[in-house]
Design brief:
With about 220 residues, the chain is an alpha+beta fold. It contains eight helices and four strands; from the N terminus they run ααβαααβαβαβα. The protein has a single domain, classed as NADH Oxidase (3-Layer(aba) Sandwich).
């Protein structure tokens, strides 16, 4: 039995318009940086809701959309999350992480102290749903699908003029407990969201040039 279809809503651009769009996006994204110093200034929650809506337009395995975004503004809950995250981070930096990993982190200046988890006006926790409400409701390519949605969300935040950071204290089971999430959901990313603090500085890093990330087979 064939599935129902509808005409594709697609805008075909001429080559000049295509190049203009991708150059404008590239110029914007070159300025995107992970931020660890946030202003406490509140942000428009409706803008963040729209960014979640954009993220939810991502493709997913069998269109199961196996994600859930939890937006946290409660100071008390943010404090709980920070305390639990820092417990895991202290174990990571204090012996759990291999020496090579810690050496690779040195240029970024990171440590177990994560004040941004309380300073940022919002924390967005992205959960991956292993399956639906029952195990019979299968989900497919969950990591790939949720990873794509995360990318959409980060891009949307940047385009909206907000900063974020992909924070992954490991393990992250405490997030499901604190936020009372069901057993079929596991924390995938923890993203503080807000404006950079006045005078915010970021590490000097370089991205690989196109020649190192692109392979063309003709």
């Amino acid at each position: 039995m064939s599935a129902p279809t509808k005409p594709l809503d697609f805008e075909r651009l001429d080559p000049a318009a295509m190049r203009a769009r991708v150059e404008a996006l590239a110029s914007s994204m070159r300025r995107r940086r992970s931020v660890r110093h946030f202003s406490r200034e509140p942000v428009d929650l409706d803008v963040v809701r729209r960014c979640v809506e954009i993220a939810s337009l991502a493709p997913s395995g069998a269109n199961k959309q196996p994600w859930r975004f939890v937006v946290v503004s409660s100071p008390g809950v943010k404090k709980q999350i920070r305390e639990a995250a820092e417990n895991e981070e202290r174990a990571f930096y204090g012996g759990r992480a291999p020496e090579r990993w810690l050496k690779d982190l040195e240029p970024l200046g990171t440590d177990a102290d994560k004040p941004f988890l309380e300073e940022a006006p919002l924390l967005v926790v992205l959960f991956a749903q292993k399956h639906g409400e029952t195990e019979d409701e299968k989900h497919y390519y969950v990591n790939e699908s949720v990873g794509i949605a995360a990318g959409f969300f980060i891009l949307a935040l940047h385009q909206a003029g907000l900063a974020t950071l992909t924070h992954t204290p490991s393990p992250m089971g405490f997030l499901g407990t604190i936020l009372n999430r069901p057993a079929n959901e596991r924390a995938f990313l923890l993203l503080p969201v807000g404006y950079p603090a006045p005078g915010c500085e970021v590490p000097v890093i370089e991205k690989k040039p196109l020649s190192e990330v692109l392979v063309e087979v003709r």
